[in-house]
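Sequence design from tokenized structure. All designs in this work follow the same two-part layout: the structure record, then the generated sequence. An example of the structure record is given first.
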């Protein structure tokens, strides 16, 4: 699965790369006793090493089932982490069982309040996986493009046309209709006024960019503003940010393009992570390099090769699901 971790939530890059090196060394079960002892010494030398190891192990579990590992010591350490998650899952299942015996209203309220968007997305009307993009024609003739790892629910009637963005990003080109057209997230509602616009959201905020017509934002607390063509704004449940010039990149993705117009390599990596399985890291010493150009976002391996040919960087891959951008030496 793709990773949604932000730069701030990750352990330091150096610790992550060391953890990936140790995982690659130990994963085949052929490491010597001395190598395992050196790994243990590294692991316990700094709490950041332990955080980095848990992160690497968590990603690797998606690609290497625990039961298939030859190294029993490595598996035992992984089980320590997994056992905590198992207890959490059991508590969740117990809560779901208790709620199932209650009223439908109670279940719906719990679902909206507590279920993660990633779980709700499995039952969505339309969804995409990591690295996938999809264009669909809605019941009224409107067009919708779903970006990577996105999900929407639809509710169209004679009184309203409603798209609920459960996860990720959607671009909408509305068709004319007698009923109002809304896009909703957990932070509020956007009413389209004959338009082309993009909506992206995560747990903290929703971002709106308008390219034709206008869109009215109304947060769940009642704050509102109209965003016109060529403008963008972000908001949470309480507040709406300043209206700014719309980012062309939020329209370019529907053509499969990652548009980099004098942005940092770190920003390119943050965007590219959304389309890749596993981990993609960037060393601090090259993270602020400026990037220009159009990149084929549906082929992230090609994007990395293009970056490596244009910048003084190299791409290191100690594991099949782990890539790191380093300074070229």
């Amino acid at each position: 699965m793709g990773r949604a971790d932000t730069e701030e939530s990750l352990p330091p890059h150096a610790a992550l790369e060391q953890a990936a090196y140790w995982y690659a060394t130990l994963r085949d079960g052929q490491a010597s006793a001395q190598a395992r002892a050196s790994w243990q010494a590294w692991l316990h030398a700094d709490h950041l090493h332990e955080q980095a190891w848990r992160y690497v192990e968590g990603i690797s579990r998606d690609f290497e089932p625990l039961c298939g590992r030859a190294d029993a010591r490595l598996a035992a350490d992984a089980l320590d982490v997994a056992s905590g998650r198992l207890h959490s899952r059991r508590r969740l299942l117990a809560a779901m069982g208790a709620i199932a015996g209650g009223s439908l209203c109670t279940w719906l309220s719990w679902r909206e309040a507590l279920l993660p968007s990633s779980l709700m997305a499995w039952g969505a009307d339309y969804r995409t996986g990591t690295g996938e993009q999809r264009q669909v024609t809605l019941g009224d003739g409107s067009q919708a493009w779903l970006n990577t790892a996105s999900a929407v629910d639809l509710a169209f009637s004679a009184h309203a046309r409603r798209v609920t963005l459960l996860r990720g990003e959607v671009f909408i080109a509305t068709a004319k209709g007698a009923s109002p057209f809304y896009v909703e997230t957990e932070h509020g509602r956007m009413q389209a006024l004959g338009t082309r616009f993009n909506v992206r959201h995560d747990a903290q905020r929703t971002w709106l960019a308008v390219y034709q017509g206008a869109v009215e934002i109304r947060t769940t607390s009642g704050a509102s503003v109209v965003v016109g063509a060529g403008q963008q704004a972000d908001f949470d449940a309480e507040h709406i940010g300043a209206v700014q010039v719309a980012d062309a990149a939020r329209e370019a993705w529907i053509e499969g393009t990652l548009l980099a117009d004098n942005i940092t390599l770190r920003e390119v990596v943050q965007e590219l992570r959304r389309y890749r399985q596993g981990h993609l890291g960037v060393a601090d010493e090259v993270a602020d390099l400026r990037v220009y150009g159009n990149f084929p976002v549906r082929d992230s391996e090609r994007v990395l090769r293009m970056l490596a040919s244009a910048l003084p960087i190299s791409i290191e891959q100690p594991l099949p699901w782990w890539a790191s951008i380093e300074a070229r030496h």
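The chain is about 35% helix and 30% strand. We note this feature because it recurs in several other targets discussed in the main text.
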